[in-house]
Amino acid sequence: MAAVFLVTLYEYSPLFYIAVVFTCFIVTTGLVLGWFGWDVPVILRNSEETQFNTRVFKKQMRQVKNPFGLEITNPSSASITTGITLTTDCLEDSLLTCYWGCSVQKFYEALQKHFYCFRISTPQALEDALYSEYLYQEQYFIKKDSKEEIYCQLPRDTKIEDFGSVPRSRYPLVALLTLADEDDREIYDIISMVSVIHIPDKTYKLSCRILYQYLLLAQGQFHDLKQLFMSANSNSTPSSNSSPGEKSTDQSLLEKAGLSESEVEPPEENSKDCVVCQNGTVNWVLLPCRHTCLCDGCVRYFQQCPMCRQFVQESFALCSQKEQEKDKRKAL
Known about the structure:
Layout: H1 2-12, H2 14-33, H3 47-52, E1 57-58, E2 70-73, E3 84-88, E4 94-103, H4 104-116, H5 123-130, E5 136-142, E6 149-152, E7 170-179, E8 190-198, E9 209-217, E10 222-224, E11 229-230, H6 244-257, H7 261-264, E12 284-287, E13 291-294, E14 314-317, H8 321-331
Helix pairs in contact: 1-2
């Protein structure tokens, strides 16, 4: 009976047809725009709108003192045949142990052993984890706050000129920094630092640089030390004097090794002003791009990094408000 009534109403009243179409249009529009609070498939939404509505999580950071510092002195002159000069800067007496031709597979197995089995707090612990899968080892004693320059070189009788083509089974050099005094290991959370260093040779001529640095903690964790990218001054000039041809060669070698140029780009003179307001002090690191370019006042307004336009998944502050207030008082 009801069906007969609806059919009769449809035949004799075109307004009914118009009302049904209008109602369907309103319901569909409400579903797409989320008026009813129901979840809508992402395919019906703009991708930028979906990302913009995503909440940016703020990481809770804990300040940890790193007792180790290592950098390459004059990397342009380093090679497998001539050796390499390393500059250390340690807060305590330390040991620098260099492993030439370290096995890549055994190295990452050693990092996993630090997490699951035993702590790599001494050179002997790393040697046990590597199963002596390296070609040559040398060790130096580093005095605290000395900033010593250590010259490392393979012995000539090894007759090693290269470590083969990419991908390689051995790293040219792995440098381990550990605390010399056992009592100091109870003071610091970071008990050792491992640096993977590329050194150019006869086959692979990519310029000398630190590829990776890992901080090993007493609790068993290890963290990959990453560089932060700060906004460069407009009047600053790159510190590198290499020619465009050399840069293009390095770029092609980096692509073969699976490394991006941004990961190993030499640092430039950096600005401490926010790139947005040009007034506040830069204090926030955006992840995953690692650009450090926003102040406390501007960070809340950005879902995308103003430098590279990548969507921000997480962020953390370099200094707390209390530390900033202390710095201002010292300046006054």
